[in-house]
């Protein structure tokens, strides 16, 4: 038995209305339904849920864990400007090798980490196969 695919993403938020605006504005998410403490969106075909909770921990303090969304290489400068204009918390990204494509890391108002990334898994594996002989790769 194995997972059949991604079902949904859920993020705990401290202010539902503020977060609804953030996800609509920054990601272009389409609000589908909401009630007092919950909202459901379509985000590029992904079911996104927000759940308002009190006293939630700030995830950005915990680890490198994040959710990444794909964008086109030529859209990256526009997205950086968009985030800056909206006062979004932009994080220092990790150092990247030239073949590893580009990205920007940022947080939502509750500290959930996100990345807009211009590469694909295939790009990453191809680059690593060429530059990281110490890695082990598995083919089906």
The CATH architecture assignment of the largest domain turns out to be Roll
| Counted beta strands | 8
Shape: globular
Secondary-structure class: alpha/beta
The SSE order reads EHEEEEHEEEH
Low-confidence stretches: none
Instruction: Let me know the largest β-sheet.
Output: 4 strands, mixed
Trace the largest sheet across and list its strands: 1-4-3-2
Number of H/I helices? 3
The CATH superfamily title of the largest domain = 2,3-Dihydroxybiphenyl 1,2-Dioxygenase, domain 1
* Structural Rg: 17 Å
Can you give a write-up of this model?
By secondary structure, the chain is an alpha/beta fold. It has three helices and eight strands; from the N terminus they run E-H-E-E-E-E-H-E-E-E-H. It has helices spanning 16-27, 76-85, 121-131, and strands spanning 8-13, 30-34, 38-43, 46-52, 67-70, 90-91, 103-107, 113-117. The strands form two sheets. It has a four-stranded mixed beta sheet with strand order 1-4-3-2, covered by helices on one side. It is globular, with a radius of gyration of 17 Å. The model has no long low-confidence stretch (mean pLDDT 88).
